[in-house]
Amino acid sequence: MYRFLVRRILGAAMILLIISALTFFLFFAIPRDPAAFACGKLCTPETLEIVRRNLGIDEPVFLQYWHWLVGIFTGRDFTYGHCDAPCLGYSFVNQEPIFQALVDRFPTTLSLTFGAAVVFLLFGIGMGMIAAARQGRPADKIASSASLIGASMQIYFVGVLATWVLVDQLQIIERPSYTPLTENPLQWFYGLLLPWLVLSIIFTANYTRMTRSSMVEQLGEDYVRTARAKGMSARTVFLRFAWRGAMGPVITIFGVDLGVLLGGAIITEQTFSLHGIGELSIKAVINQDLPMLLGVILVAATAIVLFNIVVDAAYAFIDPRVRLS
C-alpha cells in the first residue's frame, strides 16, 4: 500500500506539472499582449506597465513559467508587495494574491460541496439499494422514474424555481447565504440548506441509477449465489456481500464528483449568489483576469487528482477482490 501511494502521488505531481505548464503556455499563446489580459478590462497605461514588469514579459516564456513555478514554493515579490508561499501569482485586477483570494472563498465551496455530498450519497445510495432489492416492483419503478426525472433537471432552472417557491412564496426556507460554521452553526446550516437540496437533485439521480445497476449486477454473481446456497439470510447476502462489491463504481464516481465540486460548483454558486471558488472563476473570465483563472484551474485539477488517489486506495478496503500488491 505504501509503495502504491508513493507511485500515485508522484504520478499526480507529474500530472499537475503538465496541467500547469499547458495552462501557463496557453496563457501566452493568445493573440494579444498577455500583460493586457492579466491587467483586466479597466487597465490604465501605468498599470499595464507595472503588470508587464511584474510578469517579466521581456523574458523568455520558459523562464517566466519557471519563476511562477518556483514562486509556488518560495513566494515572489511584486510591486504591490510580497506574495508568501504558496504563491499562485497576483491578481492585478483585484489587487490581491491569488492564493489568498482562493483561501477566502474556499470555506464556502467546501461547505457547499460536503453538505450536498452527504445529501446525495444518503438518498442516492439508499434509493438505489431499495430499487435493487425490490427489482421489478413498484418501489423499483418509482425510484428509477424519479432518478430519470432528476437527471433531466438543470440547476439554474431548479434553483431559481425553488428559491421563488420555498423562499419568496412559502417562506419556509431562508434565502441562501453563507455564514462561517464556527460563527453560527445554525445559520450556516439554514443558509446552505436550499443549495444543498438543489445541487443534490442531479447527483442523487446519478447515484441512484449507478447503485441500482451495480447492486443488480452483484446479486447475480457466483459468490452471491454461493452465499445464498450456504443458507445465509437475504439481508446478510445483500448488505455484507452484494453491497460491498457494488460500491466500487460508486466510489469512483464520487471521487471525481467531489474533486470537481471542490474546484468550484460554478452554476450553483452563481444561481444562489454564493461567493465561492466557482463564482470567483466566473468573475475572472468576465474581468479577463487570467492569473486568477490560472490559479483556479490549478486548484481544481489538484482537487480532482487528490481525490482520485483516495478513491484508488479505498478500492482495496471496500472490495476484497481488489488488493494492491
UniProtKB/TrEMBL annotation:
CDD domains: TM_PBP2 (cd06261). It is a multi-pass membrane protein. GO terms for biological process: transmembrane transport. The chain crosses the membrane at residues 9-30, 112-133, 145-167, 187-205, 241-267, 293-318. InterPro entries: BPD_transp_1_N (IPR045621), MetI-like (IPR000515), MetI-like_sf (IPR035906). GO terms for cellular component: plasma membrane. PROSITE patterns: ABC_TM1 (PS50928). It is found in: Cell membrane. The keyword Transmembrane applies. PANTHER family: DIPEPTIDE TRANSPORT SYSTEM PERMEASE PROTEIN DPPB-RELATED (PTHR43163:SF6). Belongs to the binding-protein-dependent transport system permease family. This is ABC transporter permease.
